[in-house]
Amino acid sequence: MKPLRHAPFGALRYALLGATMFMSHGADARLTRIEVEKTAPDKPGYETISGRFHGEVDPKDPHNTIITDIAAAPRNARGMVEYSATFAITRPLAGSDVLFYDVPNRGNILRDPDPMGFVRVVSGWQGDLPEDVGLQTARVPVAAGLTGPVLARFVDMPAGVTSLPITGSIGRPTPRPLPVSLDTTKARLMRLKGDSAPLETIKPADWAFADCRTVPFPGTPDPARICLRGGFDPKFAYTLAYEGKDPLVLGLGFAATRDLVAFLRHAEKDDAGHPNPAGKIAYAIASGTSQSGNYVRTFVHLGFNADEAGRRVFDGVNPNIAARQVPLNLRFGVPGGAAGLFEPGSEGTLWWTRYNDKARGRGVSSFLDRCHASDTCPKVVETFGSAEFWGLRMSPGLIGTDGRADLPLPPEVRRYYFPSTTHGGSWSGGFPTGGDPTPPGCALPGNAVSSMESLRAAQMMLVAWVREGKAPLPSRYPTLKGGDLVEANAKAMGWPDIVGAPVPDGKLNSLLNYDFGPGYKTYDTSGVIGVQPPRVLGALPQRVPRVNADGNETSGVPAVALQVPLGSHLGWNVKAGGYEAGGGCGFAGGFIPFARTKAERLAHHDPRLSLEERYHDHAGFVAAVRKAVARQQAAGWLLEADAQKLIAQAEASKVLID
């Protein structure tokens, strides 16, 4: 075999070696082998290295015993539990001392296209994803022989369809565990007309674990599908509860991230002598968006920010548009869920400060308890927008489960709220049309207010905080004390009376108090769920941001597009049809445009000023954008490249052009 060459910032080639060529260096858990499968040029001055890494953990080590079902996982000759995952590293050829880890979302790489001069790293962590080209995935062992309750939900299926796959997650469905038995008397299929309606049990004789796509009911037996006599009705949601077997040890995904980043930060080579492909790293920062933001919160909360040697893994973290814990470290967890009915993730710790959850009787806790105990807490910049209040239950993270008072932030946390934005914000910038395309299944056009520019500024503040000790700008977010958080109805919010437009009443995703059984470690969103579906013990209070006379929110860090609005930009939308039509449309935001002229406004009895009354003409609109851009830059919330982009978008827009 040819000797391996180590070029610190040139192309690296690692031979793919078998396990027999690696020798153990003691019983410590760590990344043992890194396989580079491809090295390719990226943006000018960058290259991307991708492949797979392998690791092992000691199931008896206190760093790992929190992993659900780790004790039942198969072990190698050294008594260790093995895993592997994919990775990709985009690095500047000139090098960087900052590693910026972008947590994949359902295997997808959600990353700013500008590497910003850092070593950008992604890797797989979600062990229930099917492996596919372009996805970051993980391989974790099966805890063979273990069983437990499993739940799957089915909504908005085509009318009359008779057979459906048993899957979990959204966006990228993942197979649910196979049932112990195909006997429907040992399972339960239910339906309900709305999330607040009672569950109606379907007779065991009227459904089957089967495939009816080509064979009439009861179809061909199939443990991965269900079949319903007479077909499914899209006006209902269906819930299946059954006894599953052989769970994946999904919590190993946290260890995979921990061990990879610890290796890239501190190791010179793997067990075979292959060099660390990241170069010399002094600082590590993680950012996750939505599901992966929940992952970041839970990673810190469960203590994984301490590596096997007790060192800090990430110096800073940015959970973005994240409102829950990720339900990963569970037997039969569904990490790809999204705060739907009966889904775990909102039951435990949801706050950065220590708070006594008296409303649910769950005691005092915070996300930072474990890292405070081990002195491994990262600096935290939390960012989120309006849709997280409406669709993802953000409220308790700010005001607790009783909703009585603002929760203070600890000194290592900054919080920035991006008002009147949809989930993740629009990437269009908001000026070309005023609204984004209508989200699937929703009634209103999409909300085009972009949060990317503010997010990028916040992330650069986090880097400076970690690297230089430069404190970020003060937190900006809605509070009860400031009168910014109110009940989710038109009257309390100050919602304008727009003739023919929907109102916010009834659009909030309820925060239900669930009982998943004694095996569920509620505090940590870990353990074994024993009751499916969970018992509903009641609903908890939530609050949302108030709005001004335009229907736009007033607190936090407003984007330029919100400072120069083209309509009412909402964190909620309306479900157009199917299950719960007329209610909230997931976590999609909506848009209600202003009238173009005063005459049009008066004709439609619209209380909001028209575009013409606000800006006079296209030149006036562009001038208003320029002023807003200058304000945003002066306040430290807009980078120069983004400032020029927004001005160019305004100039190229069709606003007030005949």
Automatic annotation (TrEMBL):
InterPro entries on file: Abhydrolase_dom
UniProt name for this protein: Alpha/beta hydrolase domain-containing protein
Lineage top rank: taxon: Bacteria
Originating species: Novosphingobium sediminicola
Pfam family, one: Abhydrolase_10
Chain ranges of the Alpha/beta hydrolase domain: 250-648
